[in-house]
Structures are given as structure tokens and as C-alpha cells.
Specification:
Helix content: over 70%
Strand content: under 5%
Number of helices: 22
GO molecular function: NADH dehydrogenase (quinone) (non-electrogenic) activity; NADH dehydrogenase (ubiquinone) activity; quinone binding
Oligomer: single chain
Number of strands: 2
Order of helices and strands: HHHEEHHHHHHHHHHHHHHHHHHH
Membrane topology: Multi-pass membrane protein
Distance between the termini: 22 Å
Protein name: NADH-quinone oxidoreductase subunit N
Largest sheet: 2 strands, antiparallel
Family: Belongs to the complex I subunit 2 family.
EC number: 7.1.1.-
Radius of gyration: 21 Å
């Protein structure tokens, strides 16, 4: 085994790991006063990891990717594109975090440190080509996430969110491990390349249970129905910057990890896992749309919106084709921008004392008090609803197109119908902001960091985003091709 080459191929994870160790020392020596410095350095570390990843992506020498550590890890275009989305989401979340904790004086240097280590785990997840690597990356990301969810120690809701996330996460990990043990028992290996031929032909009952248990464990991580029950409570109770992080970077990592294991390890048994994915997709679309209708808390509504969007993304995966995988990546990129922009807009909803405003009734008439925030939030809502000419429409279009091309017309039709239902609660927010009598609650000021991230995401989801359609589609096609090249 060539360790030098392996370390080179795992450059983003190595760089972030070393950066995390440095941040640990800074946190230990500097205490709470080093929180902002740690945040700046963490953003720098994620920028550095993004540059390393992009260098692999544009280097012709790595067109076919490469395996590291004896096939435990694979550097390819699919993993690189997923990592870029993860790192960019992490950067955006860290930029808007410090302002949230100013009032409570609870911001500590451990926060950016946890985000960095979570990013290391997520990078391993999307590049894992072995069940052991997958689980190590998953747990590294999850353990950091449990602490982040309960980061605000003075808030009972945050402590409750962290506890719920931990208990249900432990249950999901147990289900995933049991599925892995069955897959290993019936294939004789934990490597995706060895599992694929071992599962060729008729799949036995034990192996089928292994596949189902693995997918059930992964469904928790992507908050797909019926393993979505933690999402609304954790999204509402966790600090809003943490919720912003949960809705973007870990979502990309979990979906990319699910795509790799289904299309690589279980690629010869598409008929077995496709039924599970189709059920999870349709159930997530319907439950997410219906569950959001009666919500009065914006964060809970966005939690159900996240479940709803996961369903649309899974429609692309259910096709089992390169076009479906490409559409899934395009939707993921657009979804990250929409979700990040939505939560940043929520972060900017503050009363005169600087307290966070989360109740939908409090944003009544926001268009008159804060017209730019209302405009950007409305753009995010309409884009999430898939209403043209906003860019969110294109994400849904390519996913449904891939489903139709794969002869899954019924699946696409149900998805389109459910997206109409989902448009109701998005339009409800727009109606409250523009047509209700002003509540005059949101009067607080915001800093440049929030406005910068909100502006970038708003421009991306605007009609100007269509200028990126061709290059983003080509990049997604290349990533999907790399995923299907490993056979």
C-alpha cells in the first residue's frame, strides 16, 4: 500500500484534520475569547479544503479518480462535487453564526471546531467505498452534530433537541450496523466492489434484510419518511445556525453516501432497493407537504420542507440511472442555496431587543418594515415551491425529467402533484409578509455577514441562476459518470 499516495488523495480530510487539531489547541489556550478567531480560521480551513478538492476536480490526471488505503476510500468527481457543496455550506453557516450568540455570550471556540470535524466525517462518508469507512465517517459527523444540537446550554429546547437527536441517532446507528453485519455475512466482504458481484443474481432473504436495514439506517440520516420524526423537534430546538448547518451540509453528505452505496455496492440489485427508495421518496414528499401546512413556527415549517425536498431528491436516485444521479446532484446544489438562504433570512428576523423571531404571526407585514428581507425570503419560498422563473423550478424539472426518461411516469406524476400541495405553505408565508396587517415585531438590525450570504443565495436562486445551468449540468453529469464507472 502506497501511504504517500493515499494521504495525497485524502488531502481535504487530512488538511481539515490538521486544522481541527490546531483549532483544538487555540480553544484550549485562548478560551472563550478565541471564539471569533477560531471561526475565522475554521472558515479558512474549509476554504483551503475546497481549493484542494477543486484542484482534484479540474486536474486531467485524476479524470478517472483514484483509490486510497487499499480501496477503503475513493477520490472521484462524485465525491469531489459533494464535498464542495458540503464545504461551501459549512462556510456559509459559520459566517452567520457569531451574531446569533452575541446576546447570550455563549459562543465558544468549540463551535467552529465541531463544524470542522463534522466536515471531516462528511468528506469520508461521500468518498467511502467500504462499510467500515462509511461508518467511521458517519459517526465522526454524528457525534459532532449531537453536541452542536445542544450547544446552547441555557436553553431547554436546545438540550432537548440534542438528547432526542442522540437517542434516535444511536438507534439508527444500531439498525445500520445490524444491516452491515448481514451484508458482510452474506457477501463475505465490507468492500463495495466485492459486495456488488456477491449480490448478483437472486438475492437471498438474509441479504435482502441486510440491504433493507442499511437503507433504513441511512434514511434516518437524510430524514426520509418514516425515519423523519426527529427532524421538526431538532430543527426547532437547536440554535438556528445549527439548524442551518443540519439542513445543508449533513443533508448533502447523507444523500451522496446513500447514492454511492445503492448504485455501487447494491447496483446489481436495483429492483430490491428501488422499492424502498420509491416508498421513502413518495412518503417524504407527501408527509413533508402535509405536515408543514399546520405549522406556526418557521423553523418547524422549514423542517417539513426539508423532508419534502428529500423526497424529490430521492426520485432522482430511484431511477438508478446516470441521468437520475446527475439530476439529484443538480437538485442538491440548488437546495443547499435555497435552504441556506431561507435560514439566514430567519436569522435576520430580530425584535428590538435582538431576540430571534420564529413565530409566523410575528412576520406579518414584514414587507413594509424590512422590505429587502421580505423580498429575499419570498424568493426562497417561491423557489422551494418550484415556481418559475426562480431556479428551484429547474431542480424539480431535471429530477422529474430523469424519472420520465427511466419510464417512471407515475412516480414523476405523483411528485408533481405533491409539489402543488407543498406550494400552499410556501405561498402562505409570502401572503403573511405582504398582505397581512403589520405586526411591527421585526425591527432589529443585521450585520454585513448576514446580508452578504443572503444576497449570494438570493442571486443564485433568482433567474440569474439559469446562467449556471450548462456548467453545473456538465459537472453533475461528470460526477454521475464517475459513480457509474466503478463497476
Amino acid at each position: 500500500m502506497d501511504y504517500a499516495n493515499s494521504l495525497y488523495l485524502t488531502g481535504p480530510e487530512v488538511f481539515l484534520s490538521v486544522s481541527g487539531l490546531i483549532l483544538t489547541l487555540i480553544a484550549a489556550w485562548g478560551g472563550q475569547k478565541a471564539a471569533r478567531l477560531s471561526t475565522i480560521l475554521a472558515v479558512g480551513a474549509l476554504v483551503g479544503a475546497s481549493i484542494i478538492t477543486a484542484a482534484f476536480l479540474i486536474n486531467p490526471a485524476f479524470e478517472q479518480g483514484g483509490d486510497a488505503f487499499g480501496g477503503l476510500y475513493r477520490m472521484d468527481a462524485f465525491g469531489s462535487v459533494s464535498k464542495l457543496l458540503i464545504y461551501l455550506a459549512g462556510i456559509g453557516c459559520l459566517i452567520v453564526t457569531p451574531r446569533f450568540f452575541d446576546k447570550g455570550l455563549e459562543y465558544r471556540p468549540e463551535y467552529p471546531l465541531l463544524v470542522v470535524f463534522a466536515s471531516v466525517g462528511m468528506g469520508m462518508m461521500v468518498s467511502a467505498t467500504d462499510l467500515m469507512t462509511l461508518y467511521i465517517g458517519l459517526e465522526l459527523s454524528s457525534l459532532s452534530s449531537y453536541v452542536l444540537a445542544s450547544f446552547t446550554r441555557s436553553d431547554d429546547r436546545s438540550a432537548e433537541a440534542g438528547l432526542k437527536y442522540f437517542v434516535l441517532g444511536a438507534l439508527a446507528s444500531g439498525i445500520l450496523l445490524y444491516g452491515m453485519s448481514l451484508v458482510y455475512g452474506f457477501s463475505g466482504s465490507t468492500s463495495y466492489l466485492a459486495i456488488r458481484p456477491a449480490f448478483e443474481g437472486t438475492l437471498g432473504t438474509g441479504a435482502l434484510f441486510g440491504v433493507i436495514f442499511v437503507l433504513a439506517g441511512l434514511a434516518f440520516k437524510i430524514s426520509a419518511v418514516p425515519f423523519h420524526m426527529w427532524t421538526p423537534d431538532v430543527y426547532e430546538g437547536a440554535p438556528t445556525p445549527v439548524t442551518t448547518f443540519f439542513s445543508t451540509a449533513p443533508k448533502v453528505a447523507a444523500i451522496a453516501m446513500t447514492a454511492r452505496i445503492t448504485l455501487d455496492a447494491f447496483g446489481n440489485q436495483a429492483d430490491a432497493w428501488r422499492q424502498v427508495i420509491i416508498f421513502a421518496a413518495l412518503a417524504s414528499v407527501v408527509v413533508g407537504a402535509l405536515g408543514a401546512i399546520g405549522q406556526s413556527n418557521i423553523k418547524r415549517l422549514l423542517a417539513y420542507s426539508s423532508i419534502n425536498n428529500v423526497g424529490f431528491i430521492l426520485i432522482g436516485l430511484a431511477t438508478g440511472t446516470a441521468a437520475g444521479a446527475s439530476a439529484m446532484l443538480v437538485y442538491l446544489a440548488i437546495y443547499v442555496a435555497m435552504s441556506l438562504g431561507s435560514f439566514v433570512a430567519v436569522l435576520m428576523l430580530r425584535d428590538k431587543d435582538g431576540n430571534q423571531v420564529e413565530n409566523m404571526a410575528d412576520i406579518a407585514g414584514l414587507s413594509r418594515a424590512k422590505p429587502m428581507i421580505a423580498l429575499c425570503l419570498a424568493a426562497m419560498m417561491l423557489s422551494l415551491a418550484g415556481i418559475p422563473p426562480l431556479y428551484g423550478f429547474w431542480g424539480k424539472f431535471v429530477v422529474f425529467q430523469a424519472a420520465v426518461e427511466a419510464d417512471m411516469v407515475v412516480l414523476a406524476a405523483i411528485g408533481i402533484a405533491a409539489s402543488v400541495i407543498g406550494a400552499f405553505y410556501y405561498l402562505k408565508i409570502v401572503k403573511i409578509m405582504y398582505f397581512d396587517e403589520p405586526a411591527n415585531v421585526v425591527t432589529g438590525k443585521n450585520d454585513l455577514a448576514h446580508w452578504t450570504v443572503l444576497a449570494v443565495t438570493a442571486i443564485f436562486v433568482s433567474p440569474l441562476g439559469y446562467l449556471l445551468t450548462i456548467p453545473m449540468g456538465a459537472l453533475a453529469d461528470r460526477a454521475a459518470a464517475a459513480l457509474f464507472a466503478v463497476v
